[in-house]
Amino acid sequence: MTDESHPAAPAIRVAQLRVVVEAADFDEAVALYRDVLGLPEQAAFEGAGDARVIILEAGRATLEIANPAQVAMIDEVEVGRPVSPRIRLAFEVSDSAAATAALADAGADVIAPPTRTPWNSLNARLHTTADLQITLFEELGGHETGPTTA
Prior knowledge:
four-stranded mixed beta sheet, two-stranded antiparallel sheet, 3 helices, 27% strand, Glyoxalase/Bleomycin resistance protein/Dioxygenase superfamily protein, Glyas_Bleomycin-R_OHBP_Dase
């Protein structure tokens, strides 16, 4: 469906979304995201001067664009107060309580434990290595459309 406010899609087709994060403690970040959260390693490269990068698969990627009111509403539901940075990562997991506990055991700070949302997901908020704030969300089903889960 197109109209004046939503013109026809351009010919460009994005094949992949890749978020690049600079981590001062590379090994700690790899341990948390690959080894604890379980993101499979797709590739790793090394270069001169101890340059290292690892590419981790994170399932299906989406770009979620939210206005300030939506961000404030999500913070209120998940945490009870404003805490979101401008960019936050959200990972869908099969068990948000277990994933939250595993990441906390690996050194992540739990901002808010798994909380049931109005859109029927179980969301937890954490501050992790590489200075990233993340949401872990578990879809509980029964809510086909509505507000974002992240």
